[in-house]
Amino acid sequence: MKAVQFHKYGDPEVLQLSTKVAKPTPGENQVLIRVMATGVNPLDTYVRAGDFEEVAFPHTIGFDTAGVVESVGPGVETFAPGDRVYTLKTVTGGCAEFTVADQNYVGHLDKALSFEEGACIGIPYYTAYKALILLARARPGDNVLIHGASGGVGAAATQLAKARGMKVNGTAGTDEGISFAKDNGCMNVFNHRHRGHVNQLVDETDGGGYDVIIEMAAHVNMSNDMDLMRRNGRTIIVGSVGEVKVSPSNTMEKESWFRGVSVLSSSPEELVEIRNAIEAGQRSGWVRPKIDSSFPMQKASEAHKLLTSRKGAKGKIIITV
Q: What is the pLDDT of residues 241-259, one digit of tens each?
């Protein structure tokens, strides 16, 4: 089969389309999927660059996929051949014509969504749900701020928060991203590159601050987040790529707190809850994946280049298989 692999860590150019990769076989509690599309996440670039856990070479890239179940291994009862599915993690790598995934990391894909849209679900929507609902315990009526509201996780978090009756504001880095985030459900979106945007964000809550902040760049915003949170405010850190200097005393009077999220560290019980919520969201219509750009397998390196170089996001980058 064909698969996008790399034989050493490095820049996007290390990604190669291999044409003679052995088709995987599902083991116990595993599902074999005929892949139609795969998503590109920041995590994929970390793996490729060697900034995540070590991998064996050659390594097939990709976590999020969408496709059709080809066969199942012993112990699989939730899925059957012919089912339309998505994944947020695979065993053998997602950017391939076939992949094997543990059934805990597979969900049903509603017929209302395309496979390309399905490839946008995995990590973004699971991360959004875990951050907003399981960790932050956000409730209807809460003021929610989503930094990076035009990216994959940000777009998913916006849709979820709006569907749960929260008041959502966001930030983005370009005019195009701001327009995208507004169309996706944010009440107001401010350019985080502009001086004074923090004051604008506070003004949107009449000075009260935010109950919940979903933070994609803690290394940039953490200090400001302390000022933006209201009493008992919660900031969930989705992303950070550097160190930051802050004064913890700023959290004391408000009794506010920060917490990181790692969707791949979720318990089986959490994965079931998230999967059920996402499947219900597909049926009710609030799960509406947004695609930024699409690339064929042979241009996977270009997809990675775009993800790391674009100045402003407007949805998910995918690779069709």
A: 888 888 888 899 899 999 9
The per-residue pLDDT for 282 is 98
* Tokens, residue 86: 């998505």
Long-range contacts of 245-248 (CB under 8 A, 24+ apart): 246/222, 247/223
Q: Is the pLDDT of residue 311 over 80?
A: no
254-299 pLDDT, tens digit per residue, is 999 999 999 999 999 999 999 999 999 999 999 999 999 999 999 9
| Residue 251 neighbours by CB distance under 10 Å | 17
> What pTM was estimated for this model as a whole?
0.95
CA distances from 241 to 6, 66, 198, 218, 261 (A): 23, 28, 21, 8, 14
Compute the average pLDDT of residues 15-22.
97
